[in-house]
Design a protein that fits this description.
The chain is mostly beta strands and 440 residues long. Helices cover 0% and strands 53% of the residues. It folds into two domains: 64 residues, no CATH class; 364 residues, Fucose-specific lectin (Neuraminidase). The relative contact order is 0.17.
Length: 440
């Protein structure tokens, strides 16, 4: 069958090849059992990454913080035997006591641990192609102002630029302390007070601009608040408040000078918003999914660092769904099933850990089960091909039963090669083409 569409003058075409509904191209597997939950961590703690040709998955399994890895060339999403056994970095860690960050520019993985004492621990090293990590420093403690340190978050762009946020208690009050290491010494960048235990996600924006997204993680009613700095953390804004967003059910990230957040809000709804630096006004909210099992359902947000976003969430007690956006949240796909054979709790202790998009692959982790032993789960999803074609005059897009999609134009255009037969749908509005989808 031949499909032909006339493209209006000045239109921008975006072809996005996606899996069919409920497809699981690479499957999902159980990697380990745990007496504690969530072994996969809270969504904002980002415990998965890809480096040196391997998937890496940090968990807290029965109190032991450590990692497993699997070659990306292996069927990691369908064969648990491809994974290494867990290597321990620290024993006796609570489920939310570990955060991980991988910096591809330096090929270093950083972790931060909170043990409920008046300090957090950190370390960094180089992941190797055999699944081991060569640690560059010994595990090192940083004394905080408060005590009972927990729920750490770490971000680093090099050993000379490390950020750690940690929930503490000071004189009986809940605080969030944000610390920064500049290659010489650690210093506290800011100290915030919450109604209950709060977590924080710090993210790079542009140049010396950073964002800090904080939110309740204890059910105390703290709203999600966005802070920004334009001087590398010397000073921060007073904060822009959104609605009741629990950060243990949400995830935040930065692309360019814009902050993106997805998570659950009251009313059994998964919600998305974005705001550009300095985020001085409350952002508009977009409902992504409604009718969720309860108000304690986790959601995660992932990106390829360019224009693609994925939100994964617990759609029911048996299903983990995801939705995609090819235009940084301007529009979203219908829900697709990542896994439909789960046993998920109606509490905070279920849901997905931080997913990640590398190339054409998204990886996900979550904790499964209603009681001990809980299951540490992993899924790998192939996103196939995405590309953009722009034209300054009338052009024609055609596809047939061959394996290619091509464009022609009276002036200039690029050519997109798709690796399988596709069904293309689109929305035409005036001189604009939007919502291109090529499902193959």
């Amino acid at each position: 069958m031949l499909f032909i569409a006339a493209i209006m003058v000045g239109a921008s075409i975006e072809v996005f090849q996606t899996p069919s509904v409920h497809a699981q191209p690479a499957g999902s597997v159980t990697l380990a059992s745990s007496t504690t939950t969530p072994s996969s961590g809270y969504p904002f703690q980002r415990r998965e990454f890809v480096a040196d040709g391997r998937f890496w998955y940090f968990t807290v399994t029965s109190g032991n913080a450590g990692w497993q890895s699997c070659p990306t060339s292996a069927p990691c999403g369908s064969d648990p035997a491809q994974w290494t056994s867990q290597s321990t970095v620290h024993p006796s860690v609570g489920p939310g006591g570990l955060s991980v960050w991988y910096d591809s520019s330096s090929n270093l993985v950083f972790y931060a641990i909170g043990l409920g004492s008046p300090q957090f621990l950190y370390r960094y090293g180089t992941p190797n192609s055999d699944g081991t990590i060569t640690w560059r420093i010994s595990e090192t403690g940083v004394t905080t102002t408060g005590s009972q340190d927990d729920l750490p978050y770490v971000f680093a762009s090099s050993p000379n630029n490390i950020w750690v946020s940690v929930a503490t208690v000071q004189s009986g009050a809940s605080h969030l302390e944000l610390w920064h290491y500049n290659g010489i010494a650690w210093a506290k960048s800011t100290d915030l007070v919450g109604k209950g235990m709060i977590g924080g996600v710090v993210m790079p924006l542009t140049g010396v601009q950073y964002g800090l997204v904080t939110g309740d993680v204890s059910g105390s009613g703290d709203n999600l608040v966005i802070y920004t700095t334009g001087n590398g953390g010397s000073t921060w804004t007073s904060g822009t408040t959104t609605i009741d967003f629990s950060l243990n059910e949400a995830e935040a990230l930065g692309i360019g000078s814009t902050i993106y957040v997805a998570g659950q809000t009251p009313g059994f709804v998964d919600t998305f918003f974005s705001c550009a630096y300095p985020c001085a006004s409350p952002p508009a909210l977009t409902a992504l999914a409604t009718g969720l099992p309860n108000n304690d359902v986790w959601a995660t947000l992932s990106t390829d660092g360019s224009s693609d976003l994925i939100v994964a969430y617990e759609a029911s007690q048996s299903t983990v769904d995801y939705i995609q956006s090819a235009n940084l949240g301007a529009s979203w796909s219908s829900p697709l099933a990542l896994s439909s054979n789960e046993v998920l709790s109606d509490s905070d202790f279920s849901g997905t850990a931080a997913p990640l998009i590398i190339g054409n692959t998204a990886i996900f982790g979550w904790t499964d089960g209603l009681a001990s032993p809980f299951a540490t789960r992993f899924a790998e999803l192939s996103l196939s091909t995405r590309s953009s074609t722009s034209s300054s005059s009338t052009s024609t897009l055609s596809s047939s039963t061959s394996t290619s999609v091509s464009t022609s134009t009276t002036t200039t255009a690029t050519t997109t090669i798709v690796t399988s037969t596709c069904t293309v749908t689109f929305t035409l509005s005036g001189s604009s083409i939007a919502g291109w989808r090529a499902a193959c």
